[in-house]
Specification:
Blueprint (H helix, E strand, L loop, with lengths): L16 E6 L9 H10 L3 E8 L9 H19 L3 E7 L8 H14 L3 E4 L5 E2 L3 E2 L2 H17 L7 H4 L10 E5 L7 E4 L3 H11 L2 H5 L7 H16 L4 E8 L11
Helix pairs in contact: 1-6, 2-6, 3-4, 6-8
């Protein structure tokens, strides 16, 4: 994002299906779910793919935690209108980038056939915000690679030959962004933001287990307001968006 430049709105009115790929229950709810609410209101179908059950995220025994977090994620989905929730059982806290992870994400992409896939950033460090959690890094990088995998006939061919799926080329890659990496935004002013806040509030017991965690209504609107300034709107969610159908640009290499 150039200094002084107002970010354009993401051309999301053409989206029919959007897939959000994250590591844990609650990951989508830290801002992105407000954009999800906006997309669903516009008529898109949104699916969530959680790579772990979040079983290592609370002091409770892992199986108890996994059941609790699944129930809270279902409530969070209901708050914004998401009906497709897929939860995998890769190990929480020690998620590893590998072919199995890419294979599972590619399968979901081939099944759901999304116009856009939302992923988290895989940077080790966010300038001014600290270090990115290890599972988040593995999830983001695996998802980016799986988007390409899903569009190749001879990558994970058993999904095509044995499972009856077809290769699928996702048009838009949307990486959650905050600051200079953002290229587009989604105006979530009003009801979408309110639904986004409610979706994080649905993770009540999980948030209560985090010492000093602020109330969602106290910080989600604040973050969205800061992002809104980049678009010239009251509240926004920002993304680094790549249109894979657009011709490559070499301007940055000049």
């Amino acid at each position: 994002m150039l200094i002084g430049m107002t970010l354009p709105a993401l051309p999301d009115d053409t989206f029919e299906r959007v897939l959000c790929v994250v590591a844990h229950p609650d990951d989508v709810e830290y801002g992105t779910s407000a954009a999800v609410a906006k997309w669903i209101a516009q008529g898109a179908e949104v699916g969530y793919l959680l790579l772990t059950r979040g079983e290592a995220g609370m002091p409770n025994p892992p199986e108890e935690t996994a059941r609790l977090r699944r129930a809270e994620q279902e409530a969070a989905c209901a708050a914004v209108g998401v009906e497709r929730l897929t939860v995998l059982d890769h190990p929480d806290g020690v998620l590893v980038y590998n072919l199995d992870l890419r294979r599972d994400i590619a399968r979901e992409i081939r099944q759901f056939r999304p116009d856009a896939v939302v992923v988290g950033p895989w940077d080790v460090e966010f300038p001014g915000l600290g270090y990115n959690q290890a599972d988040h890094r593995a999830a983001g990088l695996a998802a980016i690679d799986a988007i390409r995998d899903a569009d190749k006939r001879w990558v994970f061919p058993e999904q095509i030959d044995d499972e009856g799926l077809e290769k699928w080329g996702t048009r838009w890659i949307l990486v959650g962004a905050f600051g200079p990496d953002a290229t587009h935004g989604v105006d979530v002013t009003g009801e979408p933001l309110a639904k986004g806040v409610a979706s994080l509030e649905a993770h009540k017991e999980y948030l209560a287990a985090i010492p000093g965690h602020p109330a969602p209504k106290d910080f989600i609107p604040q973050i969205a307001a800061m992002s809104g300034k980049a678009m010239g709107v009251e509240h926004a969610v920002l993304f680094k968006a790549t249109d894979q159908h657009a011709p490559p640009s070499f301007d940055d290499l000049a």
